[in-house]
Amino acid sequence: VGAAPRGSTRRRTPPGTIENRERPAGSEDAGDAPLCGLTCGLGACGSDSTDAPQSPVDLRPPTMADVAEAPAAAPPQGQAAPRKKKPSLGKQVTTGISRTVDAGKTVLSTMERGVKKTYDALLKENLKASSPMTSSLWYLLKHPLVRSLTTIVVLFLNLFVYYGDPATFSNSESYGTMIGDIWHGWFEPEQIGWFLLRWLAMICLGLLGLFVGIKLQHWLRDTWHLALFGYDNGENEKREPLASQDGALFLVICSTCMSWWIGLKIYNRCMPPNHKVGSGMHKWDYAFFNLMLAGLFTFSSDVWNVVTVVDQMAQSIEHETSGVSAEAVGMLYAPKGSRLERCAAWFVKHRLTLTRVGLMTGWCLGGGIMIWRYEVTKDVLYDTSGTKHEVGRSPFWTKEGNTEFTRHFVACVVAFLNVLIVMQDWDFPDFSEGEIKISALDIKALKFEHCFEWLRKHLPPIYVSGKWVNYLGVLMGMGFDWGYWFMTTLPFRPCDYAQLWESKTHNIYTLTRPKKVQERRAGDAAAKRCWWFTDNPLISLYDHEFVEARNQSAAWYDPLGKTWPEGHSLDDDAWYRNGDDKDERAHVVLVETGSFTGTYTTGERDEYIYVADGAWLLYVMCLIPIFAILTFWYLVFTHEKVHCFNRKNVMAMISQTGEESSERLKALVSSKRCCVCLAKKEHV
């Protein structure tokens, strides 16, 4: 080692070290990612391990001690060399400590780079959320047959949800929380001045929802680093730059709907009573709403899910070359040359034809059934002749078996399975990359340019990746599921749908006429006079002619057990309002699709009519969809992290490798502090 001139910036290279060693691509300097950052990136908050490599690499700048120990310049020829002064004891101690600290930093830097390299090579793809490579449970749930079966089960259960709901067979005006408010806000007729004011409020609330949705997507992406919402760690150089918008459309739709709903509640506080926004669907009845609006949307979404899941699995088997899809498919589900791999190859070859035919067949068949069912229901509900009219009888279940408990349980299971469909995707929750194309199309994403030039200069195009397009229907359907299990089946009462209830037999009867009586007694999202619909003498109109039933005395209604409360009267306007007009006489129809045992869970309850003995069971059933939603977000937030629930399998996988640095990883994941850190963190 030659001497360095005084003032030179050249660094000495001590024996046993490597000078100007080239760093591997993608590695980081020791100061860029401290050890605590590494452990949090792996989901741990610290470790006590001190394993070190045998040959440290010294990349540090020269210290004062190095300069002090550098050999002095040779004296001129003919002169005696000056006597070297021995350093003091304190200086020797300081120099030794400085060298020890520098050597320790070098050891940690080298160890950190080695751990990161091993982590990238062994764990990164296997720490995807709900990876079948590190979980026996997810291996089963993500099996191709299980994924396909889940979508089919949801389709058939949703048929029961709409055909088995007694509200489907009501012809009273429909009211819907949120969707009814939004519909009323945009389309309900009003005086021109008040109408324009309401429209101005809706436009302002819509812009607010747009702003909140975009900001929320940026926050989830940039602060929490969630791959589901477009976070990019920079490792994939071929990644679509616009994929940073992932999830923005979904969040904008949700935030805008919430903005309208909450904003209209505030709007109503400021308006006179006769100009408030209601939740009615502008004279649409419940039969039309359940079958022609919610039912058609849900069934169309279910058909899309059945076709899309098969299409995505086939494309993953054929085209994915990296990531969990490739590893799980190639090693677990469809090895090269297997029957499943050959079927996928045939499907991908004809995918456009197969997906389009499947979608059109399912939509036409299901839509035709919904329309036919609505026409049959409408004919019965609006028929004014004869008695003993029944509606909703099913060959697949009995009226006695389809109680509020059955309907609520099915609704909760459907909500759970719809969330599971999204979590079963092999790449969940990263929907930004890959070769997956949109079902029935030959493109990988939707991209829309802005209409105006000044917008195109300031805003990027609207981009929705293929995976987000494929699952958007499921995610939007979760809103319908929530509205059904939480706001329909849990607090179900026949009176809210202008239906009569016979407490002795648990039968439900739809009061089809007079319409003014429906509005007076029900006429809102929650019935104004619920007691009026229980054990009302009007039930006798099911099997007796109107004039015969109206002219009888109270004693004639003994078969009902005289349970109807004070306030019922044979002089009620339901009997005498337009009683001479056959088309306007009171009329009831027996609902054969289901029954009501009298359990009511929330809000107004008449104790002598409604019993709460089974209400606890309805509340317990709510844990099913709540568990699914919590699991969904847990997996989104722990994506690519070592955490308490996958730590054991990760350690088992590490132990099978021969890497020296895996010992450091074992120490990290075996720490009691290895649960995922949900604070802000940087990826290593």
Explain this structure.
By secondary structure, this protein is mainly α. The chain has 22 helices and 8 strands. The chain has helices spanning 35-41, 64-69, 89-122, 136-141, 144-163, 179-187, 192-222, 248-270, 286-319, 323-333, 339-349, 351-381, 404-423, 453-458, 466-489, 515-521, 546-550, 573-576, 615-621, 623-637, 647-655, 662-669, and strands at 173-175, 280-285, 390-391, 445-448, 462-465, 499-502, 507-513, 587-591.
Keyphrases for this structure?
684 residues, mainly alpha, 4-stranded mixed beta sheet, 22 helices, 8 strands, 5% strand, elongated, disordered N terminus
Number of strands: 8
- Report the end-to-end length measured between terminal Cα atoms: 37 Å
Our count of helices gives 22
Rg, Å, rounded: 35 Å
What general form does the structure show? elongated
